[in-house]
Amino acid sequence: MAVKRIVANINAKDPQALRSFYEALFGLEVVMDHGWILTFASSEGASPQLSVASQGGSGTMVPQISIEVDNVDQVYDLATAAGHEIVYHIVDEPWGVRRFYVRDPSGAIINVVQHITKAAFSDH
Asked: Which of 9, 34, 78, 123 is the most buried (most CB within 10 A)?
């Protein structure tokens, strides 16, 4: 038996209201739309992962979803320019990631993260 995919499900009264959030911030495409459910996907391949945590690191709350990106500063700038609530401002964490938390229109907390090299880590 092999896990082929893990899908995060966010409870939203109006899934369509989240469409522009995930398309604009993350470049995700809608690959399924039944009205009551939207499924977004990236053209990038990713291995299935599931995290179970007692806290979000650095004493933060556990986010509902973590989305790894290749340019976290760009996503942060897009999120703040669009007026989205930043729950945890951008920071370099001691375990080698640069990240921030943003609240999506349904209220879900999204951990937007980029792994950084030690050289890049010292530049921020």
From this structure: 78
